[in-house]
Write a structure and sequence with these properties.
By secondary structure, this protein is α/β, with parallel strands linked by helices. The chain has a single domain, classed as Response regulator (Rossmann fold). The chain is 41% helix and 14% strand. The chain has a 5-stranded parallel beta sheet, sandwiched between helices. Helix 3 (76-85) links the parallel strand 3 (64-67) and strand 4. The chain is globular and about 35 Å long. The protein starts with 7 loop residues before the first strand and ends with a helix.
Length: 152
Amino acid sequence: MDDMAKIILLVEDNPDDEALTLRALKKNNILNEVVVARDGAEALDYLFCRGAHVGRDPQTQPAVTLLDLKLPKVDGLEVLKEIRANPSTALLPVVILTSSKEEPDRINGYRLGANSYIRKPVDFGQFMEAVRSLGLYWLVLNEAPPSQRGER
């Protein structure tokens, strides 16, 4: 799969944080398709091809999911738990991207199988750098598990 075909799933309920993340991706020339889910239930529907996403090809999973924790309907930790519990999504890279400073969130995020935990910087310059590094790592450098790339 080439880099441009790699989809980013952004799970974010705050419109300002969504706009900021999309702007930071664009400014860093990360032009991958970004699918935005605005609550945990919508993220799970996308990943498991249910609801509004029932016709979506289940073989096309995101290269990385950027997951906020404080979400309506289904919170981020529950989304992560469901991703890890399902064999079709268990190995998907999930980066928690949150403003939460609560240590239990970080502990539980890693305990439930997050690949990374990034606290959203308040300063836009720092946030730009965090998104640039995140894109470089997860979309260019990281080698996805073979089953996720359609290779054996």
